[in-house]
Design brief:
Layout: H1 2-6, H2 15-31, H3 34-45, H4 50-57, H5 61-81, H6 91-101, H7 104-118, H8 127-138, H9 146-160, H10 162-165, E1 184-185, E2 196-205, E3 210-213, E4 219-223, E5 227-232, E6 238-243, E7 252-254, E8 260-265, E9 268-273, E10 279-284, E11 292-296, E12 300-303, E13 306-309, E14 313-319, E15 322-328, E16 335-340, E17 356-358, E18 365-372, E19 377-383, E20 392-393, E21 401-406, E22 412-417, E23 421-426, E24 431-437, E25 441-447, E26 453-464, E27 474-487, E28 500-508, E29 514-520, E30 526-533, E31 544-552, E32 573-576, E33 582-586, E34 590-593, E35 598-601, E36 606-609, E37 615-619, E38 623-628, E39 634-639, E40 649-652, E41 658-662, E42 667-671, E43 699-701, E44 707-716, E45 719-726, E46 732-737, E47 746-749, E48 755-759, E49 763-768, E50 780-783, E51 786-793, E52 799-809, E53 818-829, E54 835-839, E55 851-857, E56 863-869, E57 884-888
Antiparallel strand pairs: 1-26, 2-31, 3-4, 4-5, 5-6, 7-8, 8-9, 9-10, 11-14, 12-13, 14-15, 15-16, 17-18, 18-19, 19-20, 21-22, 22-23, 23-24, 25-26, 26-27, 27-28, 29-30, 30-31, 32-33, 33-34, 34-35, 36-37, 37-38, 38-39, 40-41, 41-42, 43-44, 44-45, 45-46, 47-48, 48-49, 49-50, 51-52, 52-53, 53-54, ...
Helix pairs in contact: 2-9, 3-5, 4-5, 6-7, 6-9, 7-8, 7-9, 8-9
Amino acid sequence: MATAMAHTTALDSSAAERAELRAIIDEELARLPEGLRAVVVLCDLGGRSRSEAALELGCPEGTIAARLHRARKVLAERLTKRGIALPAAGLTVVTPELSAAVPGELAQTTLVASESFARGGTAVVSPTVQTLAVGVMHSMKYGTFKLMLAAVLAAGLMAGASAFLNNTAIEPRADAADPPKEKLVVPSVEVASGQWKETSVLETPGLAASTAFSPDGTTMLVGTGSHVKAYDTTAWKALWEYRDETGGAFGVAFSADGKTVAATTRDGAHLLNAASGKLEHDIEEKDSLPIAVAFLPNPEVITGGVKMISSTRRLLFGNAGGYYIKTWRDIAQVSGINLQAVSPPKKPESRYSAPLAVDPSGNRVAVRGPFDPKTGKNVFWAWAAGSGAANKLLDGHKGAVVSAAWSKDGKTLVSGDTEGEVITWDAVAFKEKSRLKLGGRVAALAISPDGSRAAAAMILPALVKPEPAAVAPRVNENYMETVVVWNAKSADSNTSGAKVETVSRHPAGGSFEGMASVSFTPDGQTLAASFFNFQHLAFSGELVGKVRIFTLKDAKPKASEPVGAESKEWIFDMAFSPDGKHIATSPGVSVRNLDGKVLYRAAGQAGQFTADGKHLLVAGENSVALHDAESGKIIAQYPKPKGNVGWHSAAFSPDGKRYAAHLGFEVRIYDTETGFEPLRLSDAFEPTATIMARSDRGLAWSASGKHLVAVGVLVANGKMGAGMWDTTTGKRTHVFESTPNHEPICAAFSLNGDYLAIGYKDRAEAWYVGPNEATKNPERIYRTDGSVTAIAYDAKTARIALGVRKALKSRDDSEPEVFGHKSEVAVFDVKTGKEIESFENLTGNRPTKLSITAIAFSPDGTHLAAGAGIHFSTPGQLPKSGEVKVWSLAP
């Protein structure tokens, strides 16, 4: 085609040339199959989003994306073959042609967009021109004609497609020949003295829709729709990545114990291993399309008169149309309830408004409620979500509520809407305390764990202010991705004057239709923010998201946890590595050195070093993992037993080949690699009536692995106590039955296996359980001034350490009153039974609600470690975490 080939050398300004050029483009557009042509017309020419096009064409959004990518690629290839290229004279030749073909303002903005995008920049143009310019050029690999083709497509197709779009021609302005200079003007948000600084920007595979920090603050999750990615929060290095084939991983959340990750998917939610990112289970709700997800705390239950945490799991996910709560104890049997916020054919006020905030008690969740016909919009409420509590209406927002956040103490709730208002609620009385007008649109909210700060991800308009000032400012079809922070505790009845710090402000093209995320680390010193605009998914090519990390300027640097600092979990067990250089504590397994530096953490209920010290075995909720002892990297994973009955505690045999699991009233032994039971322990009893059970669930193996002791099991029908079994035959060899004043609390073997020590409320008894017949039992009694809550022998069986919980009494000798307790470690000589040393500074010489629940000697006997947790006598409100201490000893 000679005429078409002529365009490769020059563009004539004749009307015939222009008409032929437009005819070529129209011809190639018409040649596209109907399915491809329709998406180009709707998305590139009509400015529709992929989701809107999907609704109009009646097919999935993923199909629209695939067709759009294919259509752009085919158009680019066909036009290239027909010789449409950028002439040597460049824009000086193209500009007159476009000016004659289309209105001057459209031609000018099209050229600005084309030039900017070809050079990697961003122009301030209308969404239609910008989408068309970017969408087609991303499909092209021929840089020499990008400018020409984008300009021709924008001019020729938009001029010739009026029959499809029914657009009205735009009249050129009188000053189009000499347009005024324009600049972006920042929206008027009062800026306080800068307390935050941007310290990192993470690039993600796909736009970042959500972020979440682990309970211990060491890991951050990012959901991008197509991926879930985990980062270490110290160096911000990627730890693992999970790809969601459905493209629905928009919302992410950690479980309260940090062991499990929930990620939304098209048909419900994935449950991933928090340490490895591997898929463990799917929670299904067909075509639910959730964009938000959260775990609810495990409910408290009364078992045998003792308050305990139930093993029931609850997960909530949803979108603007409604929410689903899934509940299970056995993952094979999941039940659920749902809240429908919108009934077809009605549509949500805001498609991506799915507020979801969980009350720390688990009694309520702040969500979008049912449609109210009186107001014509959905209510916002604190939904009881099946807990039995009353629903509480939160009335006060004019716009659709998009996001909400609950303070850690459960007393404060904040919510934000599409009109840029944030309301602070008294979450006890469920009354409005104050409101803050930020303007624009609130896209996400967060409140720091201590409740001192609140943050919002905002969509604010980008203003275009022409010069000279005679022309009034106008709102441009771009926006600013903005992050603001304010003092939440200073909120009173009138917060209109509250100081708001603008932490971040970045321009973005087009209009915003999507979601955002903002989240604090548990210490409140770091903030993460991201934005996800579904309109940008219409662009072909690789999309890279950004998560911006901000840190308080006066934040204290993260230091390694000193020994004696708070642990992230209550401590129930601890063990030294064979070389004595490291300590593993559980549950929520942490490995630290003797100076207190935490080397790594692994989600699990029990952890133990292998005999050679090269590996660490961790019994997790859904698998048993073998970690490299130095790095913490997972080397292998093994299945847990089927049925997955809730465990109270677990302990590995010394060789790591088996582990024992405490199931509440009985104990079972499993093979580490297969999850099968190699044998069933004898004399296991089922509860037949209400039993006054205690929360002590101790397990201990002998050094040879041939014996196992368990505390807090049924030793006879209706009777609790402790039992010892031969693990080669499964036969029970010893029974320690509970009586009202004689209840076993803890137990430990001596290293040579000859002695078993049992702790009671006023003493510890040492029983001979060796190969020879005992002359008397107990062979030795170690008297204490309080309950013995933990026991350990040293390697030589020369010393025994006891964790003791002592009552603090008033000095009134006539009737002394107990006003509290303190915990200490007492060390006795094994042979003489005399106390030779004591340590009282585990929790300080002060009242404490925590008991010493784990003790361990280093292999060489030069160090003694102790950890604090809870046991049966722990009263009232519990502390959030335990403590670990290490003392030096004389060898």
